[in-house]
Amino acid sequence: MKHSLSAELFKFTHQKTASVGILTLLLLMIYSVLTTNTTATQVVFEFGAVQWIPIIIIAVASAFFDMEYRNRTILILLYKNTNHWQIYLAKLLIVWLYSVILTLIATFFTIVLKSWLVGSNQLSWSALIIDRQTQLSLLIGNVLGTLIYALFIVTLSFMLIMLLKLNAAVIGVGLALGFLGAGFSIAFMKSFITLIPLFRWNPLNMIFITQQLANPSFAAISHLSNGEIIVGNLIYSVIFTILGYDLFKKRCC
Amino acid sequence: MLNVQNVNTYIGRKRLIKGATFTIHQGDIVGLIGPNGAGKTTLMKTILGLTKFDGQIQFNQQPVTENQHDALANVGALIEHPAIYPFLTGQQNLALYAHDAADRQQLISELGMTDYIQAKSKGYSLGMKQKLGIAIALLNHPQLVILDEPMNGLDVTATIGVRRLIQQYAAQGTAFLISSHILSELQKVMTKIVLINHGEIIVDQPIVAFEQLHHQADKLLTEDFSLTAKILKEHHIHYVLDGNAFQINHKNSFEIQDMLSSQQIHIRELTPVARNLEQLVVNILDQQRSDHHEA
To answer: Is the interface score ipTM higher than 0.85?
Structure first.
């Protein structure tokens, strides 16, 4: 596993995708700063980074696995390893670690942008805003939510690239999830109110973790408590990993 | 070393390899020959445990299955196209798999890749990529190397270099299983032939025995051309003239020698007509086709 991890890290860090992902995130955050007023909510949601990180991750994750098939290097990976779990898990871990780095960069950049745009006196980190929580604790809640949702997204995109075998299709699904997923989930539950106890566990609903941990009032929209939405995300991550690995084993090289 | 016993390979429900059985020993250079779609690449992938199969594959007495590849630690392979990461340099591609930097450097130098090995491999020509793919397969002194069309895209100098490298590794005990459409090139290195058609192995022989078995014509030169022609005609023995030499069927050669001896005609030359591997393979495949039609 150690060898697989170091090999995957070596490949990942030598691809342009990783640095392009970081650059894209920073540009999108700057775009958000330039086009909207800087409010406490904007800061808590890291100038839109909470929304952009899952989309960047889905593109990077599917590209990272897809390139092994495009370059036919999967063949060496498979015949040199008896334990194919190692290949799958090593890739998954590397991309999730990348999402941690993206989140940390976004947080650091948020702090820089906030102090540059509004100074340290206004919108203070210790000021109580939503639900009597400080801006700092809301930001930390969002960061945690983004990291857990990143795991959901990485496992989902790995499963999708095995299923659809087309990078562009996976990115399309990622964009749809990022922009329409939450809306669909709300509409779905509103249409079938009696089935909310069941439908609140639908995978599209899991995206609310990125907002709910910081702002518990979102629980009224997701119909899941903080604990439930964390468990839901983790369970879906396990399911996607198992299904994705099964498809990986069956996929011909 | 490698023992393939009654192996059937399936893609979906279709059986692509049918009861393949053959062995490869240390230092063997086995040419895997067959028409397009015969199953060469599938057989190679099967040996590498990359397809569903039944039967038995053992490498150094260790089983190879779809889920058990431990035995393949000392096997190198180049299947279909070189497996290269385009965003890495040639050196970095090799470093991903190399256990020993000296071995890696030696391969780079022997394959003439020194000038471009530090450049990103996405800019490599087909031949440069092919050499890098061969180098990856030969890394860490493997006991068995599987090469699928290794001469693809190589120029004359590179082809000669790869051929020498294969012979050098084989002399040190590495076994090779090589498929190539350039049979003349394969003929120069292989010590054993495995001919496959429609997923079935139809020939599995040392190359010397194969050539002896399948050569069918002899060239005959005597001291007296006209008397020899007369004797052959009288005995209704078929021949074809090639200048002042007779081309006779190999199975008649002893009978003809006896006749000429009894007439005190001296033989100047009696040699097998050299046939290239391509002709022999085409003949066997044609023969198999006509046997199928008759059946």
So the answer is: no
